[in-house]
Amino acid sequence: MGMSVSITAAAVQDAEHILKLQYLCYQSEAALYGDYSIEPLTQTLEDLRAELARGHALVARLGDEVIASVRGEVDEAGVARIAKLIVHPRMQRHGLGGRLLGAIETHFAADSAAKRFQLFTGHRSDRNLRLYRRHGYAPVSELSAGPRLTVITLEKRVGTAEGAPGRSAGEYTTSA
Fold first, then answer.
1. How many CB atoms lie within 10 A of CB 125?
2. 100, CA 20 to 30 Å: which among 6, 35, 59, 62?
3. Cα distance between residue 12 and residue 53, in whole Å
4. CATH 3.40.630.30 fits 5-171, yes or no
5. What is the DSSP string of 16-43?
6. What are the residue ranges of helices labelled H in 26-171?
7. What is the C-alpha end-to-end distance of the chain, expressed in Å?
């Protein structure tokens, strides 16, 4: 490639680039579940801007191009909810998703209010599940979101090392 990838906080002017990348990246998820009405494909620019204003977002750039992003926010209970980890299809499988996940965890861990990290993905999203487990996340619940989708919520405690389970198997819960 010749250029290095930089990870920085997203700026207001990145919103449109993030939304376009999100639309591109979630096509494969929509196809996997046979549902093109999923929220990442229908989110408006205004909604994204509001989401960015509430929480924290990172972008990865190759030169001037936004090639990956992740965002999240910490709730009043100290749960850092990480969402929409996206990597341009041509840049996948190079460790960039893991780097972004680690960077946003580092950001939220510096916030003394964050006690644990939480994220979710669909039950058929094997690559996502492998990535999250490799980074120490463990399933804590499943929720049926319709006939084609079960949402798996995974989490780990702040300070849990990569690759270490965030919870014991006995703490796994399922809800319908």
1. 19
2. 35
3. 8
4. yes
5. HHHHHHHHHHTHHHHHHHT-TT-HHHH-
6. 27-33, 39-42, 45-54, 96-110, 126-134
7. 46
